[in-house]
Amino acid sequence: MAFVRARLDRFGNKGKTSRNADELRRQKNLYESLEGIKDQLDLLSKQADEGADEGINMTAVSDLAEDLRDIILDYHFSQQKAIYNQNCTLIEAADSLVLNNCRQAQAAEFLHGDRRGCLKGTREAVLDEIESWSKDYSLSPVYWLNGLAGTGKSTIAQTIAERLFADGRLGASFFCSRDFEDRRDLRYIFPTLAIQLAHSHPEFRSILVALIRSKPSIVHESLCNQMESLIVRPLSTLNVSTVIIIDALDECADEEPQSAILSVMGRLVEGIPTIKFLITGRPEPRIKSGFRLGLLRPLTDVFVLHEVDPSVVNADIRLFLEQGLHKIAKRQSIDQDGWPTDGYLDLLCERAGGLFVYAAATLKFLDHSFALASEQLDVIIRAPGSTTHEGQAQLRLGATLDSLYLSSFKTAFRRTTAGDDEKVRLVIGAVVLAVNPLPPSAIATLVNLGQRQVMNLLQLVQSLLKLSEDPDFPVLPFHKSFPDFITDPLRCSDNRFHIPPRTGHLKLATNCLRLMNSRLRQNLLSLPDYALNSEVGNLKGRIDDVVGNALYYACRSWHYHLTEVKEDFAAIVPPLRNFLQERFLGWLEVLSVGGSVNDAVIALERLILWLQEVAKDHQLLLTARDYFQFVTNFFEVIDASATHLYHSALELSPLTSMVRKLYYHQRPHPSPRVVFGIQDSWNPPTAIPNNDSYLSSAWSPCGKFIAVMAKKVAEIWDALTLKPLSTLQLVKEISRYMPELAYSPDGYSLAGCSDSAIIIWDTQTGGEITRIDCQITSGGLEIVWSEDGDTIATISPWKSETSTVCTYSISSGAKLSLAILRSSDKPYLWAHKQSFQTIATTQGEKGKTFNVFKVGSTLTQVESFSSKCNFDLEAYSPPTYRALMIKHSSGASTICIIDIRSSEILLQEQTPGVYGTFSPDAGFFATFSCYEPHVSVWKLRVGHYVKWKEFQHKPASIQFSSTSSSILNTSTRTISVVHLDYLPTAFTVEHVKTTQGKIKDVCSPNGAYIATACQGESTVTITNLHSQNPCPSQYIDTGLEISKMVLTGNVLMVKGPDKIVAWLLTEEGPVNGIIGNPRADQNDSLWELSVPALVARFNRIWRHQIIDATTLGFLVAGETAIIRFNHMNVYAYHIGTGEAINLTSMSVSSNHAFYRFDNELGNDECDLYHDNLHAQKKSIESKWSISQATLKEGWVKDPEGKHMLWVPPNWRAIGGDVYWFHDTKSLQLKGHSQLAVIRF
Fold first, then answer.
1. Would you call the peptide bond into 340 cis, given omega within 30 degrees of 0 as the criterion?
2. Residue 794 and residue 941: Cα distance in Å, rounded?
């Protein structure tokens, strides 16, 4: 006995002299435990000395052994913590920088926070079973601790983590939490676990750091790529045996039917047989489905906490209560003789109903009350077992906790006034309704109360909260049931404390807007001009000091609270309008420096929907739509630099945009100025894939994502920001052209072609599900999924009037059928229930026959229809039996929409489009040309299609979203998304009907007006489409017999027999000017193609902008307009007088300009320059970084490397040349169909 006591003395001294300040609490507890053990040893020694060995209490010996085990465990824990900290300090600075800069969740490791393990003597059975599993590598590599809310899963996980850590067998841990943004995001789990492993294992660290240096984007890729690259590959090369813990997986945001993390693990966990995974989570459907996956189910052991013998659980809860009440009584000097009574303990255990959370909440209430615990326990016992709401039936969670919560509030605020109650609701509302947890200091700023006042209110109910003494530490509800209770009027029956969500959100939204309107301003953080965010030193420190928690929360979350308000919102509209008109760019600055620009996209999207459906404020809706276009078009530069909101984004915004009108005066001086190349209206947001050889793209069924595939990369993009979200597994580079990708109906799988197989990806994880071997020709394959997602069908390119149709099983990869289809036109394939159908045409003397076949081992005809239309089939809508037919010609093509059942013609019209497609429901269709930058969208109205929207773009293909609200444009090198609701309408049916006679022309493709004219008349009627109730506002007597008319922006151009006249539409009335006198031999179709480009330049002349150069035959400089009507005839006119100007071969008078053809580019492009610019094409990389390589990176830099101007993607992709004008310090970016001039 003396020997043992001496060893323990030395053991205790080590604990007392620990130099690790973080371990003081643990060392103190360790020392106190040692003192207790020594007392027990003294007693046993005394009994032995007295010769009473046979009378020694064996229970006492057993308890002593358990105490010794716990002491040794604590000692080992302290030693491992010291080793862990030492390993962290020994990491080289360069490696540490790499790891620290990686995306990782904060405080997700078991060592952080105020988590507590199981009380000694409780949960022994489950703890012993998990420990045995962790040591036996012949057992399953995955263990699921399954339990309902409140059953103690996280407490058990914390205890296991501590024991494994003390034993040196814990690799990493991630404690998920829906309260914190990074800890509820699945994409943070694997990077965070990898960084923890790097701190524990130097060999692992070497591999990980090298990987991240070579591929920094790996932490942003798909879950499958993350686990394989960050976890599996490094561990598989090392001789490491360890356990990884993921707690509360159900608290992660995951909308998939099967947990994405579990789906990845099912594929990859067998690759690391010496690594075990302990996962805890409630048995929610997606978690249960994940563990039932075919690959994961045989690899998983399951322990169900709520199925443990109730008597065992109740005994543990009783022990937990007894020891907790004993400590409280000791702290409060309560006489423990007969307190608490056995009856009280029995009743508390009964009310707990197997839930440790009830027992913990009860102890917290008794310990933090301002009255004696003995008195408060009487209050709890006397309270009814439940309120009027019986709570959740499962384990009576609501029934027991509601009564306890209400008692806590009534006790804390029994002497408050009505004004105090309002403050209580305001403060508690900020706790339970906040999107992310707020510290008391931020709550005080947000709700406009004093910090001390807020702390006092929170301390009154701290038994219901996780509240620190530090006012800058986030405050959280003690349990997730508390917010449910306080916001439900049936559960919180006292109106003094009930917080209606709509009222709480309204107050939070109002306070967020108040704070932003009072604090936001231009360059709030005093950032240097032109600086990228990454170049600013100590940016995080500036954000903490200047912005602070409250303002940053307001900037990120105001929209969430606002859009939860469905009524009584009138008072919030004025501060919202003030925010949009005066603080919008300041708001984007804060989000930019905080790396949260994506929140701006989400906020504006939600705001637009709210303004449409709830507030119905037309003017604010137009503003919000314009701002949405601003953020999505300039997302890349806003994300990179807050200062370039002004230097680049504001400078490049369209001339008619609302954001430019309201904020252009804030543009810094001096600053680069784009003197040519800015559009009148918004272009669609455009992005360039990382690989130049772009192949294909596809909408997801939900419309939120876009799949993109190039030769070397396959990615999933955000459909709003066009920002890559994850990278799909691509084993090798693809060399063949692939016409399309195809999402499964549920969006969880994606099919695409490699050189010799169809790849099926899991979109949740990014991993390959299967590969289906098949023969793929140079034209690729069109892929269609069955409606149940079990089968795919492919159709080969249409050649020599034949195509091959095959079907395949997704699960087995087997070919199910093959058939040859003959058709006079390109066939169309679609899913029909669990099978497929296709339509083919047969050309006859009187028209075409449409034959519908069911696809199988042979093609079975199911329907046949005849039509007199001889056009080519371009697209087909199976649900509506509508066919889009096109007749191609050297001039404009003719389109025809017919119902093949009745042969009714729904539309027939000439259009520059030569390709087309239907929306999913055939309520719309679009036509486009690969040769002209023009897309037309047609809408079904009263049984016929009418032109609805138009925009300038030159795609290779287009696709409607599932809701038909957006169009995905893909070209050889760029991808763009057009939000159709944000485009001006091309016509107004009501006003078309008011005109007399046959309508000659109706057009307003790009602006705020609609123009109508009737045959045989010279009057044009102008209607302002921006007013809430559009009505004719101006009438123009042209004096011409109108043959052509174009309206772009606010410029109307009319062509008569002998002249072209233009009007500038202003609030005061139209201002006209003669453009020129066209000759009789000028081709009308060429005029149609020419005028839009001329109008755009003419519009800028009226705005007094100097135009240095344009391309494509429509050139305006000073007062000179040059129009090329065909390859041989070129004319120049004075804009004001219409007087023809004689063009010589290379120059005109100095007051005008010179003109030349540039054949070096392989076409007949025209260049026009003022004489004083003296364009010089030369290499100037030594002074200004404007080479094509630099432009692809997206920036123009000055000689010192300063980022002077961001270059939009559509300018980078033009593939043209760079010119520098020394005299005027101007830069020209010149390509085949795009041109910009920037003056520095």
1. yes
2. 34
Q: Please report which helix (H) or strand (E) contains residue 370, including its range.
A: none
Query: Cβ neighbours of residue 662 under 8 Å, at least 6 residues apart?
Result: 581, 584
Other C-beta atoms closer than 10 Å to the C-beta of 314 total: 16
Q: DSSP character for 250?
A: G
How close are the terminal C-alpha atoms of the chain, in Å? 88
Q: Which residues of 432-559 form beta strands (DSSP E)?
A: 465-466, 476-477
Neighbours of 1150 (CB within 10 A): 10
Q: Considering just the CA atoms, what is the radius of gyration of the chain in Å?
A: 36
Residue 371 identity (one-letter amino acid): A
- C-alpha dist (Å) from residue 516 to 165, 509, 730: 46, 11, 45
Give the whole-angstrom CA distance, residue 120 versus residue 163.
13
CA distances from 1072 to 1038, 1056, 1063 (A): 10, 14, 4
Count of CB atoms within 10 A of residue 38's CB? 16
Q: Which residue has the tokens 């209560």?
A: 321
Q: Say if CB 584 and CB 663 are below 8 A apart.
A: yes
Using a 10 angstrom Cβ sphere, with 0-12 exposed, 13-18 middle and 19 or more buried, the burial of residue 53 is exposed
3-class secondary structure per residue, 187-219: HHHHHHHHHHHHHHCHHHHHHHHHHHHHCHHHH
Which pLDDT score, from 0 to 100, does residue 1143 have? 42
Cβ atoms 722, 706 nearer than 8 A: yes
- Asked whether 481 and 398 are in contact (CB, 8 A), the reply is yes
- Nearest alpha carbon to residue 211 among 223, 231, 224, 229: 229
DSSP label at residue 475: P
For residue 681, what are its two tokens? 């209206």
pLDDT lower than 50: segments of the chain: 1-22, 52-53, 386-398, 987-1007, 1025-1031, 1074-1131, 1133, 1135-1138, 1142-1186, 1188-1189, 1214-1216, 1223, 1231-1233
Q: What is the pLDDT of residue 91?
A: 83
**pLDDT of res. 1122:** 44
CA distance 686 to 1210: 7
C-alpha–C-alpha distance, residues 693 and 409, integer Å: 64
Contact status, residue 963 vs residue 971, Cβ threshold 8 Å: no
Strand 944-951 relative to strand 957-960, pairing: unpaired
CB contact set of 507 (below 8 Å; sequence gap of 6+):
426, 429, 447
- What is the C-alpha separation between 691 and 694, in angstroms, rounded? 7
- CA contacts within 13 A on the Cβ side of 348: 31
Partnered with residue 866 across adjacent β-strands are 849
Is there a contact between 1025 and 1010 (Cβ–Cβ < 8 Å)? yes
H-only helix segments in 611-657: 618-633, 635-640, 644, 650-652
Q: Is 550 helix (H, G, I), strand (E, B) or coil?
A: helix
Alpha-carbon dihedral 1172, 1177, 1178, 1181, rounded to 10 degrees: 90
CA distance 740 to 957: 10
Looking only at Cα atoms, what is the longest distance across the chain?
Answer: 132
Cis peptide before 273 (omega within 30 of 0): no
Close Cβ partners of 87 (under 8 Å, ≥ 6 residues apart): 199, 200, 202
Is the distance from CB of 1112 to CB of 1233 less than 8 angstroms? yes
Residue listed under structure tokens 């590969």:
771
Q: Residue 785, Cα to own-chain centre: how many angstroms?
A: 26
User: In one letter, which amino acid is 236?
Assistant: S
Residues contacting residue 346 through CB under 8 Å, at least 6 positions apart: none
Amino acid occupying residue 698: A
Crossing angle for the helix pair 440-447 and 451-460, to the nearest 10 degrees? 120
